[in-house]
Amino acid sequence: MLTISMFKKGNKKDAKKQSGLVSLIVVSILAVVLGLIAVGFSQLMDREARRALDNELSAQAYYAAISGLNDARAYLAAGGTDFSGCTNWPALGNQYFVSDLSNGSNIAKYSCVSIDSSPNDLVYTIPEDQSVTFKISQQNINRLYFGWENANNHSTFVPLTPSGTTGSLPQEPGLPSNNAGLLETSVYAVPFGYTTQVPPGYPSDSNAILNTLARTYFMYPNSGGGAPGGIDYTQKNGSYVPGNCKSPNVDPVTGSNSDYRLCNTYIDNLNFNGVNHTLNNVYYVRLTARYAPLNVKVQATQLNGAGGQTPITGISDAQAVVDVTGQGTDVLQRIRARIDLTKAVQQPSYEIQSMAEVCKGFDVEMVAQGVYGDASNDPSISGYNYNNACAFPDGGGNVVGTGGDLSGPSVHHGLPPVTNPFPLVTAQLSAAPTTIYTGQSSTLTWISSGANSCSGVGGGPGLNTGGAANGSATITFPTSGTYTYHVHCTGFSGSDDSNPVTITVNTPPPPTAQIRINGGFSVTLWNGQSATLSWSSSNATTCAGNGFAAGGATSGSASTGALSPGVHNFSVTCSGPGGSVTSNTVVAVVNLQTCTATATVSGTRATASGSCNPAAYQTPQWTYVVTIRSACGNDTYSGPGNIFDSGIEAGVFTATFTIHGLYNGTSTSNTVSWSHGGGVC
């Protein structure tokens, strides 16, 4: 029994001990947990404190970088150029950090700065219906590339096609939100040297000159991708230019497929010879976003020796790329930004400035469907009717239609166009004659308008215009062939190539010639007769008679004149581009007419008789000569006839008779004499 009692007492004591041990363990565990919580909270507070410090230091680094960016802006505005380094910046007096004024320690600064004042491309984000204008100074630019896409969509696009090359643009309402937009691009070229002196013969109105050299193009998205098409700066102004669009696309200049724009096109031949022999080297470019906000990239190329395009690795005076690293103790922030180097010029959103006219549009609020607000208080548009506004040029100096509504629920009002003092350059060329033989000449005449100089292009023998805008030149062609010419004329408004003219130079055929006498090849005549010579030729320019005078005529007739007895030969020699030739010979055989005459006396009468062969006689056929010697004196009688009667006259008579043939044949008779006395004197 005792044993049992003692055991029971011992159990109660042990239970108390065990209960205290449990309490101790619980308290210990709670202490550990509370310690862990305290440690965790302490670490959390430390992390939050560190995070707050990091945020503060990050903000300090960011604003230090912004400070560096602003210093870079000021540095560039003061004429600074490229810079790259992480040491003191001499341009800012070696002070490139921000000091803590409380303790003098440099707790925040920007350390590394990189400035590229002529990047390889220009990048802009342009809100819808707003524009950006920038300047490029680059004398050797031949081509400007423009890449664009909807600023809110880099992966898809919707083609946008105008109605015809000079038709209306589509209405904005209803276009899908992912349309690639239209890039309205205006380029104003300033001729080299024109900013300091005006070329002779041109007005000093700089605004007129800029408008004359201005080009406005409407670049619209078109499916296709690949190498973009473009437009020549010297050609039609105010044109629609398709941009080849593709998703994904390739950068047309670098060939990269990482930094591309969906749509690409270009303006070519920017460095054309616009004023005399100087090149354009300053350009002002205005980009306007239509239908959508646009991300735009501009690149430039120049001609290389092989006739291709080489990227220009630095575009001057437009943008600078600035890279700044800011530091807040041990936290770094890096900022890369583009800074415009020229002050942005804000122009009216709906102004379209092109080579032929300036068209200004004004927004008129739509009060209700088809009803527009009262604009009568606007003196600039009073007196005009509202229309669906600005007229577009056709590229030839004519206004041919109206542009579409570019803004949605509004209408635009177009003012009358302002005539450009410099018309489009046109050129014409003509030639006369256009078909000739070797050794001959043709005269080429050129006429231009709006040009200050023209040059001849083509041909074998060159066309030397002497730089004249109008004139003519005579060219001699020594060899046969086909020669084609045109003139290239330039002026402030651009340039133009005339129509081609072709001159055909043939090898001339040899000349031919023939002659006839009285219609035949020979004739028989009698002494003193004449004949008629007639001749003709081909491929000849002149003929000379042999035995007669042809007077240079290539065909005609002439008389031989009275021919003497004998054989007479006649021919003609004709010459032309193909040489010379002598015709056949014609013959005139001239015979002598023979005559006989005999005189006899019977009483007081003397009589003659005779004949001619051939029996053709002149009038009179006979003539006589009689001499008288008498006491009354001497005397001589002559007259027609073959009979002479002395009658009652006294004296000694001597008589001769001559017969006259028609062909100059003659015969004088024998002399007969007689006498008788008495009678009277």
Keywords:
five-stranded antiparallel beta sheet; 681 residues; 47 strands; 2 helices
Task: Explain what the structure shows.
It is a single chain. The chain is mainly beta. The chain has 6 domains: 44-118 and 316-343; 122-296, no CATH class; 357-412, no CATH class; 431-505, Immunoglobulin-like (Sandwich); 512-591, Immunoglobulin-like (Sandwich); 594-676, Immunoglobulin-like. 12% of the residues lie in helices and 44% in strands. The protein has 2 helices and 47 strands. The strands form 11 sheets. Strands 4, 5, 6, 7, 8, 9, 10, 11, 12, 13 and 14 form an 11-stranded mixed beta sheet that branches. Strands 1, 2, 3, 15 and 16 form a 5-stranded antiparallel beta sheet that branches. β37 and β38 form a beta hairpin. The longest helix is centred in the first third of the chain and has 76 residues, at 2-77.
Indicate the proportion of strand residues: 35-45%
- Straight-line N-to-C gap: 249 Å
Proportion of helical residues: 10-25%
Q: Please mark out the parts with pLDDT under 50 across 5 or more consecutive residues, or reply none.
A: 1-10, 93-104, 193-197, 273-279, 349-421
The biggest sheet, with number of strands, parallel, antiparallel or mixed sense and barrel status, is: 11 strands, mixed
- How many structural domains does the protein architecture include? 6
Helix-strand category = mainly beta
Radius of gyration: 57 Å
List how many beta strands DSSP finds.
Answer: 47
Shape: rod-shaped
